[in-house]
Design brief:
- By secondary structure, the protein is an alpha/beta fold.
- The chain has two domains: 226 residues, Rossmann fold; 121 residues, no CATH class.
- It is 40% helix and 16% strand.
- The protein contains twelve helices and eleven strands.
- The strands form two sheets. Strands 1, 2, 3, 4, 5, 6, 7, 8 and 11 form a nine-stranded mixed β-sheet that branches. Strands 9-10 form a two-stranded antiparallel sheet.
- It starts with a helix and ends with a strand.
- The structure holds S-adenosylmethionine.
- S-adenosylmethionine binds next to helix 3 and strand 2.
């Protein structure tokens, strides 16, 4: 006889039975739909060439994830898609399970490693170890080289400059004839910490970072949360450190790409902990991507406050703001001008010719989205098609306009070692 209570208790005990929302928390919509994806898209072309070589040599791909935390990097890398897969295809992962040789994750925190083990328990090519990479690679004796040395979400900001140079030199020495290194820091001049911008680039410049965004506003006010130092990195500083590591290891390290990730949607835009003028833009973008939830699009309009003495940065953020707001306003206008009875949009649809090409493309895309879906009766097209597409189009605009200078929450560098 089946006991119904037991069956439900069993389901609850798995931890998979609770309501999940991506409006808040570590795995919010911006992380899943913007940040993870931005890294995947920038990394893809370099990984594609590396994989082609591995296939040519009949070898499998070896990945080392430094500061792997709970092992999210495994999922992030294994779900990078091939470029522009056709809509009819359903197998689109660039790294197939067959081509993967090993994914090894290292973290200094034993609890993170334990959690990663419990999450990745069924993945037979995954190895997880406790280890400290501050200064050199924590490897076994004669451990074979890796093809991809990966970090994510600001992990290298835990290192001092000296530690980073030593580690990168060690990676360069350890790698075989061709390897990629993904370096990830927090950006020096993100708008979300504008109060901390300083005129001089002092070496080893850190901020006291608080993971306050995972707590409610009430708790944030009541409780003193723990902070830890994080190195805030700009492109110029990173380039110097990479050069030092190349010299120290006697190996050429080529910089393939710098990119900024999360310009107006960094997590601390919502807390305002480091910028008195920050607007909670991440919360609104999370709402754009949330199923069955409609968003007040006017809340997306950015009101950038320039900071005196930082013309170069103000110029960049103001351009970004103009493009962002123009796209949002265009979408608001499209929705207001849509006539459901005649299924037409009663406004001028062609963007003015003086706009930058990327912005014109974004505007045309949103026009087509509204034209193509506003008439649908089922499934709330505004909440479930138009708003997520506005989210993706804003993300694309960010990717097109970023300059890889350290002007966002995350600054990443893709490096290539060839011997
Ligand atoms: C920002 S988290 C990123 C975690 C994970 N990669 C992710 O995507 O969620 C940084 C991680 O680096 C780890 N870490 C910091 N310093 C370290 C060190 N010296 N050696 C090994 N791991 C370290 C931390 O424990 C933490 O899990």
């Amino acid at each position: 006889m089946v006991d119904v209570r037991e069956a439900y208790s069993e389901a609850v005990s798995t931890g998979q039975y609770q309501m999940e929302s991506r409006l808040l928390g570590k795995y919010d919509n911006v992380r899943v739909c913007w940040e993870d994806q931005t890294t995947r898209i920038f990394l893809r072309p370099y990984l594609e060439s590396l994989l082609a070589e591995k296939k040519q040599d009949l070898e499998r791909m070896r990945i080392l994830d430094l500061g792997c935390g709970t092992g999210d990097g495994y999922y992030q890398l294994m779900t990078i898609s091939t470029k522009d897969p056709g809509v009819c295809e359903h197998r689109i992962n660039l790294i197939s399970p067959e081509i993967l040789g090993i994914y090894k994750g290292i973290d200094i925190n034993g609890e993170m490693i334990a959690k990663a083990r419990s999450v990745l328990t069924n993945e037979d090519k995954v190895v997880l170890c406790e280890g400290d990479f501050s200064g050199e690679l924590p490897l076994e004796e004669n451990e074979p080289p890796y093809d991809l040395y990966f970090t994510s979400y600001g992990t290298f900001s835990h290192l001092t400059d000296n530690q980073f140079v030593s580690l990168l030199a060690d990676i360069a020495r350890h790698s075989a004839k061709h390897a990629l290194v993904v370096c990830d820091w927090i950006g020096r001049h993100s708008y979300e910490w504008q109060d901390l911008w300083a005129p001089e680039l002092k070496a080893d410049h850190t901020m006291d970072y608080v993971i306050s965004y995972v707590h409610s506003r009430n708790l944030r006010r009541r409780k003193k949360l723990q902070s830890f130092p994080l190195r805030m990195m700009s492109r110029m500083e990173a380039e110097n450190l990479i050069q030092l590591a190349a010299r120290r290891s006697g190996t050429a390290i080529e910089i393939k790409k710098f990119f900024d990730r999360s310009i107006f949607v960094g997590r601390h835009m919502d807390t305002g902990d480091y910028n008195r003028n920050a607007q909670p833009i991440r919360r609104v973008v999370n709402s754009l991507h949330e199923a069955n939830v409609r968003t007040d699009l006017a809340e997306l309009i950015i009101n950038y406050y320039p900071k005196q003495g930082f013309d170069f940065l103000n110029n960049f953020f103001e351009k970004m703001q103009m493009a962002w707001n123009t796209l949002v306003e265009h979408t608001i206008n499209l929705l207001n001008a849509y006539n459901a009875e005649s299924d037409t949009i009663e406004m001028e649809l062609t963007p003015p010719p003086y706009m930058p090409e990327k912005l014109r493309t974004a505007i045309n895309r949103m026009t087509r989205v509204v034209e193509g879906s506003a008439w649908l009766q089922a499934g709330d097209p505004r909440a479930n098609i138009i708003e997520p597409q506005l989210g993706y189009t804003l993300r694309q605009l960010e990717m097109d306009m970023q300059q890889g200078q350290g002007t966002a929450h995350g600054l990443a560098a893709i490096l290539e070692i060839k011997k």
